[in-house]
Amino acid sequence: MRRIRCVKPSARFPISPTLLRRLAYASIIANVAIVVTGGGVRLTRSGLGCPTWPRCTDDSYTATPEMGVNGAIEFGNRLLTFAVGVIALAVVLAVLAQRPRRRGLLPLALAVAFGIPAQAVVGGITVLTNLNPWVVGLHFLASMVVIAAAYALWRRTVDPDGPVTPTVPAPLRTLARLTTLVSAAVLLVGTWVTGSGPHAGDQGAARNGLDPEAISQVHADGVFLLIGLSVALVFAFRAVGAERATRAAVVLVVVELGQGLIGFVQYFTHLPVVLVAAHMLGSCLVLLATLAMLWSTRERRPIAPASQPGPVAEPVAAAV
Asked: Over the stretch 1-11, which tens digit does the pLDDT of each residue have?
């Protein structure tokens, strides 16, 4: 009797490292895009275009023609969340199918995959609380966490599996971590500035009650501190000959200066919608540039192949 051999799907459809890296990179892009489109919902006053959650209305999961363009915008953004989730699921399946399976990838892939619905739940709470500005800020920060996890996953697909080796001295790694913390604090305070400003997402949504001018000054002070630390990293990395870290720090400074310029222009031009949307994209780019700088302070080297024992040489008699 002929035996039938079962072939695992992963063996029949092998996942190349290149495909996995591209999927992980696509996940970063998709999560940045959902932040920008979410900002578009707020800037078009469509935050309550679907007045409830998880349904769009009490009687329908989809927007109706009577809800107009605001309902279509809000519902469209909800549909994009599913697209981002599909990409994250594809990454998880690719990690599971890869042979040999690389360690450390699956936890990060699952973190992104589960972070997306968790972020969607926070978005639903913003609707149920009538766009409470503190919850709206939390919604943005949840997206930043997912983007950070997606970036870590992508870097893990790029780096080899060897042990982590620092590329700069310990004091500079500490300075890099401090800069990362300040960058996170600037993003946090930025949500407070947004919550005090005019773009509430709906005409009836409340503001957080903070003085816009005062909290904007606090945010600007944090930006100046962040730029100062980043410039210090450029000179410090260059002084120790860390070329890759120097390039990453230079990129970070350039992104911060661009984001700072947008922030100042939008403040003095009374927050035009286009610049506010660009500033939200810039926030994502600052986060990614900060993470790239942090990752540049260490590296993974390829695992050296185990040396194969060679044939034992015969003793050779010395010539007399």
From this structure: 555 555 454 45
The residue ranges of every structural domain in the chain are 14-161, 163-300
Rounded mean pLDDT of the chain? 88
Residue with tokens 């599971």: 96
pLDDT tens string 196-214: 988 888 877 889 999 999 9
pLDDT at 320: 32
Can you give the pTM of this predicted structure? 0.88
